[in-house]
């Protein structure tokens, strides 16, 4: 029975905890903003009131009106905060709690053979399938799996739907959705030194130049590009020349700025920033988990037609494609497998070699073949034939 590698298992789970945490952080910030602005207004009003009272110039009716105003404000604030808590705060906290409880199961599992681990791992596979479906644009499939397996709180459908919505807008050459997202995540983007916002602003500017609206382009540049001059002065200088350069230019640097392919780059930059903020890997979790297994099995033989093995996952064309990315495994003690039966060759099922060609198959396979062909065996690879008794035993040392 193998003990569970808890740390290794948890390595995959960072985004699982991070995504709802990021959501909650945003909800908290929004409550805080509301609180700050309303309380500041109340403080101003009350200072004003006490100032007037001290100066002796207060009218009771005005004072009552001002106090009513303050009460109204605070009541409004209370309603707003409780709405926010009910519609977003509480559900997000529930998601966080459920996810942490789900992870806690792993810490108490005695070993990987325990039934509670296999149930846990089944759910994990479902989660990875949903993650894979969401990343490959199969949102309906993702929703269906999540619903059928009742794992809606354990997967991030809303996040991916949002990412997809913004990517779709960029693909239609609209920056506003992505810019709104940048402003929502301003601090976090600054922390990871993302230049996404600048790239988006630059694109909007380029589009104004493409549409030959120089006046608007200048205003736009002053408003949105100049703020970046500490870090992007060179680029800002370069694009300012676009005011005088037509989109039909054949001059390399300006042609590249007008290139529509920049929109595709924006889509990828946005996706990368969104994934990074949520600590999501750029590849589906399912692929990453498969890589680990494939790396432990991958051999050069998996990629040669004549040495493929029916029972080896890496020999499968689809998984083999995925395994191209991972290094070959290093076996200190190799296991030799018969290419006919797929069974392991050892002292109970000796490897037998054809005398001329040296190709090796298991004793079981050769016996079976000999029994069907009056004692004659044929090598499927070289086509050479001989009596079963002419095969040579191969000893593994
Ligand atoms: Zn293989």
What is the gist of this entry?
The chain has 397 residues and is mainly alpha-helical. Helix content is 63%, strand content 5%.
Describe the protein's architecture and organization:
The longest helix is centred in the first third of the chain and has 48 residues. A three-stranded antiparallel beta sheet has the order 4-3-7. Strands 1-2 form a two-stranded antiparallel sheet. A hairpin with a 6-residue loop joins strand 1 and strand 2. It has 397 residues and is mainly α. It has four domains: 108 residues; 121 residues, no CATH class; 48 residues, no CATH class; 50 residues. The chain starts with 5 loop residues before the first helix and ends with a strand. It contains 16 helices and seven strands. Helix 2 packs antiparallel against helix 3, helix 4 runs antiparallel to helix 5 and helix 14 crosses helix 15. Zinc ion binds next to loops. It holds the Pfam family CTLH. GO terms for molecular function: ubiquitin protein ligase activity; zinc ion binding.
